[in-house]
Design a protein that fits this description.
Chain lengths: 254, 480
């Protein structure tokens, strides 16, 4: 049962101020796009994985890597042939397949892509959607825009639940329901997606009605039920950790 | 008592589409509601109950094309002069499908949503949220994601939302269907004792309405008929004709069928646990369904009824124990989901019926006729909820499975229509598992009933069925 992107827990990241986590997330994304050395990227990536293991456990921390594995395989296959510089590492029938530059660029792309994915995964797994919306509002995002994001985020897990229900429902209608064969599984995806689409389109007017009936459109200034809880000690530890990490990175890079 | 809502000569007709003509749905509705009144509007599916609710809420014709005439006044002011968002403290509603109304990711935030719109201070808001959770006895769900709740729990959550917003009129669309009888009675009695003005719409005359003081009207042919203005005999006969109550003279509705000793489903020491919910552990020591049997699985909201049904159908993987279904699961079981839209995905009725099957024209026509479906070219998405449920059953009827699992299949259907489904599905030596908390329904159709509570079978009964079930359900509601 997938209930939400948020996974309940009691780790430092769960307790950390969501505003700070959002800033750190953006910083990490920026850092991954800097022309860092592979060792610096590896250190950052290892740090992220360790943080993920600490907050979510080993299996869940590695889940995003599993999710993007097919894309990573494409990167491994398609990137090296485009880089011919450096030492030749692999030649097949007079064609250079892999050079040291190709290997370097492939590793960099993999670490960048995986690092960013893991960062977002850890952020959304340790930050409840209501805290995330409050963070957006704190960053002065208009309420309606924040609401659209909440509804979208609320509907991602719901859509997964609906998708799974519909997939189950369809599987019971199919005479041959082998779960083993990839192509047969793929054949069932289209009708399932059509049903999910119909379901979603049909829910638009009802969702609008429900939102209006709960006061969306009122001119009264909205109040807030949830507030961001700040923990001074956790905040200080997190800030110190980030500063330390940045120092290490800068030292390694320079 | 003061007049709070007045409906005069209300008429409404939905726009027609090619191959699907809608008749005049509401044809001169008159209704006066006074403060503190509890009104029950009964009507078989597709008689316009939900449409009437949406007109009172000023959502129709705002969101739907169609022809509307007549007058609906809230305290002397036409409701169409209000925007729906201006009605929060005036008229509130719980829709039939709770998923259509939930949009946050925790129960307390869901309850607070309307209060935030009203600009209520945080202290007052927290007080109202806690109070609502307590009144509805769902305190333990305060931080749960509503998407993970059972159907009945979702309805309780939406009732808590209304409780917190405190509207003058409560419109409740088929809320009883998914609530266990103990909770339903408690909620209704609470509303009456607090003298709230309630209009409750229902497709069935439930026992609960006999136990409370309420005004009953029947929606038939677009008009409201007041029960207290009819003589008892005429009223009963009308309710039977409309499928709102069961005819007690008709002892058994099951067609005769030989019950075999051949087991179709055998469960022993079955364990199951949700990956993300450690609070719920299922353990089924012994459970069996034989060929030709109709067995019911009854239990309170969140007791694990649907989970067990899905395990039998092979939609969930057991943790340990024995679960054997004769043949391959997928070829033996038909599972009718509560929501028919999960199983309907093709553009026309004909394509739905013939999906994966080689059917002759005459078989399609025969099925359309048997299940009272509109013509073969009609898009299912334009059909009413009840008709979509009949289509869903028709699809499985053609597939001829060994066992049919009907998960709260009576919700949104009249008893007459449910009778029809059971009669059509129960033949050719098939077995049926009815998942429900409707006591009469279980007693009416089943050879045996299993009672489930907190993921465990607590009783298996085949004698004195009604008393056993009554005792079980009316004890204080416990949640897993």
């Amino acid at each position: 049962m997938i209930s939400s992107t948020f996974i309940q827990g009691n780790s430092i990241l769960h307790k950390a101020d969501p505003r700070l986590k959002a800033i750190i997330l953006l910083s990490i994304v920026v850092i991954f796009f800097l022309p860092l050395s592979i060792s610096a990227m590896l250190i950052l990536f290892t740090g992220l994985i360790l943080l993920g293991i600490n907050s979510l456990g080993l299996l869940k921390a590695l889940q995003p890597v599993k999710m993007i594995l097919p894309i990573l395989i494409f990167v491994i296959i398609l990137t090296p042939p485009f880089f011919k510089g450096g030492e030749t590492i692999l030649i097949i029938k007079n064609t250079t397949i892999l050079t040291s530059e190709g290997l370097f660029q492939t590793l960099r792309l993999i670490l960048r892509f995986t690092g960013i994915t893991v960062s977002f995964y850890i952020f959304f797994s340790t930050t409840s959607i209501s805290s995330f919306v409050l963070t957006l509002e704190w960053f002065k995002l208009p309420y309606k825009a924040a609401l659209i994001i909440t509804i979208a985020l609320r509907y991602i897990p719901s859509m997964i639940i609906i998708y799974n229900n519909i997939k189950d429902a369809h599987s019971l209608r199919s005479a041959d329901n082998s779960k083993k064969y990839f192509w047969k599984k793929l054949n069932t995806v289209f009708p399932t997606l059509v049903s999910v689409l119909i379901h979603s389109i049909k829910s638009i007017p009802t969702l609008s009605m429900a939102l209006e009936l709960r006061g969306i459109g009122c001119s009264t200034k909205r109040t807030q039920f949830n507030l961001i809880k700040s923990n001074k000690m956790i905040l200080q530890i997190t800030v110190s950790g980030v500063i330390l990490l940045l120092i290490i990175l800068v030292a390694l890079y320079t | 008592m003061q007049e709070i809502l007045k409906i005069e000569n209300l008429k409404y007709q939905y726009p027609s589409y090619p191959g699907l003509d809608f008749p005049q749905l509401l044809n001169g509705i008159d209704l006066t509601v006074n403060t503190g009144e509890f009104i029950v509007i009964l009507g078989k599916p597709e008689t316009g109950k939900t449409t009437l609710l949406k007109i009172i809420l000023s959502l129709i014709p705002r969101y739907t094309n169609g022809t509307l005439s007549g007058q609906v006044d809230y305290r002397g002011m036409p409701v169409d002069k209000y925007n729906p968002y201006e009605l929060i403290e005036k008229i509130g509603a719980v829709f039939q499908d709770p998923d259509e109304q939930i949009f946050t990711t925790s129960c307390d935030t869901e309850i607070a949503f309307a209060l935030e719109s009203l600009g209520i201070g945080r202290k007052e808001m927290t007080h109202r949220v806690n109070q609502s959770l307590e009144v509805l006895k769902i305190n333990h769900l305060w931080n749960r994601n509503p998407a993970t709740l059972s159907g009945g729990e979702k309805k309780k959550l939406l009732l808590a939302c209304l409780y917190a917003a405190n509207p003058q009129i409560w419109l409740l669309d088929e809320i009883i269907d998914e609530l266990d009888p103990g909770s339903a009675l408690e909620i209704v009695q609470n509303l009456i004792s607090e003298k709230r003005t309630v209009i409750l719409f229902s497709s069935k005359m439930l026992d609960i309405f006999n136990d409370i003081s309420c005004k009953i009207s029947i929606l038939k042919d677009g008009k409201l008929l007041e029960a207290n203005k009819m003589n008892h005999k005429d009223l009963i006969s009308l309710m039977i004709r409309e499928g709102l109550i069961i005819d007690n003279k008709q002892k058994s509705v099951r067609p005769e069928q030989k019950i075999d000793s051949e087991p179709i489903v055998v469960i022993e020491k079955l364990k199951y646990r949700y990956p993300d919910n450690n609070l719920f552990n299922m353990y089924i020591d012994n459970f069996q369904i034989n060929r030709g049997e109709i067995v019911s699985l009854a239990g309170k909201n969140g007791s694990g009824k649907s989970t067990l049904g899905k395990l039998i159908a092979g939609l969930k993987e057991k943790e340990s124990g024995v679960l054997s279904v004769k043949g391959k699961n997928y070829l033996s079981c038909a599972y009718l989901f509560q929501n028919p839209d999960y199983q309907i995905f093709l553009p026309t009725v004909e394509e739905e019926l013939s999906f994966g099957l080689k059917l002759k024209d005459i078989e399609i026509e025969d099925t359309i006729d048997k299940f009272k479906l509109p013509n073969r070219n009609v898009p299912p998405s334009l059909m009413s909820y009840g008709t979509r449920k009949r289509l869903q059953a028709a699809v499985y009827y053609l597939m001829d499975r060994d066992i049919y699992i009907l998960d709260e299949a009576d919700a949104g259907l009249s008893l007459k229509d449910f009778d029809m489904l059971i009669n059509l599905l129960y033949n050719n030596n098939r077995s049926i598992l009815i998942i429900s908390h409707n006591l009469k329904l279980c007693a009416r159709y089943s050879n045996r009933v299993y009672l489930i509570d907190s993921g465990k079978i607590v009783k298996e009964t085949d004698t004195d069925l009604h008393n056993t079930l009554d005792t079980h359900f009316m004890t204080e509601s416990r949640n897993p």
